[in-house]
What we know:
about 425 residues; alpha/beta; Aspartate Aminotransferase, domain 1; seven-stranded mixed β-sheet; four-stranded antiparallel β-sheet; 13 helices; disordered N terminus; binds pyridoxal-5'-phosphate; DegT/StrS_aminotransferase
Amino acid sequence: MTLAPDASTLDPTAAATALDAQDPLAHFRDRFVLHDEVRSYLDGNSLGRPLRATRDRLPAFVDEVWGGRLIRAWDEQWIDAPVALGDRLGAAALGAAPGQTVVADSTTVLLYKLMRAAAAARSDRREVIADTENFPTDRFVLEGVAAEHGLTVRWIEPDPSAGVTEAQVRAELSERTAFVLLSHVAFKSGFIADVPAITAAAHEAGALVLWDLCHSVGLVPTELDAWGVDLAVGCSYKYLNGGPGAPAFAYVAAGVQGALRQPVQGWFGAADPFGMTETYVPSRGIRQIISGTPPILGMQPIADMVTLIEEAGIAAIRAKSIALTEFVVDVVDSRLARFGVRVISPRDPSIRGGHVTLDHPAFREIVAELWQRGIIPDFRPPQGIRIGLSPLSTSFAEVAAGLSAIEERLAARQVE
Ligand SMILES: *Cc1c(COP(=O)(O)O)cnc(C)c1O
């Protein structure tokens, strides 16, 4: 097949060079651990790259803090770490005042705890609202909680290439709704939900809202306090570069903390953890969300990334994220569309998060080939790939290299 000359007007490599030269955040890339073998990392939305600061900090932590201070470190710094780190994250990325964010558990476990707490706080209401396109763990945990509490789930079926709208939520809300569970950025399409409008709609009906921020935290700024959000959770190994299995975080608005009781009442969420008391008395404030011993080791990389976000500024990170996803859409339109590749994410960047989902029947095979060559997007059945772009660690050149490799493979298949 010969390509129409006007179909390839954009030279991705040259365009990327110009964009990298203008990028005020370009220098942050050197703060990450990079390997030459990885020519293009397009999966920062699944597992962020490690920071060099983390590579250096972990041995120092073992040597000096764990090894040197030993059990004394609990009193000296660890006991406050889950809320202290939560407060920093809240200020840098969430729009949350201190005392409302805590680092603990995994997203899955925190979803369970907060859903149970929300269901109990609205125990006179028998329905919950969620959507069929949400991440599996969110749906699975919800089904379990619904079974435990005898709740009916009202499932919204959103447009898979967009996401849940305010109108769809309003259509399901009533005085029977206990809570609404949704994701801020849809993990498949990248669609950004209208958090303030949906939150306000839920409140008008007297329901609570629980937002999953896994695909937005550290990338798309939120104003949780200003938007009146009740509850939120998020993970830290995606755009917070916390590493595999890094702990998650929960946000519980100060205004609802007094009315909520989470179900896993362990000693570390008690008012006096080291008092070894007879009975459980919950800690005041956000600490009561904690159950067992906090994952101090797993918090170290998150702290490094929060420092980087503080330095770069979340608004600048979002601006680069938009530039990166716009670049992907432009390259796809000018170079890949003629092979039948389709963009499944919103084209309007104001409602698109940090990844662009593309669709083509050959992607399953192509991704396997690309991984061997150090080009790493992720494949999502049946035939999608997500181009996930972590703004501080991703260069435009890296994106161009990845998309050019996809173009090459698509072209080669037509000749074969
Ligand atoms: C990544 C992700 C999770 C992951 O939950 P874990 O408990 O960390 O495995 C949950 N929900 C959403 C929306 C996600 O994107």
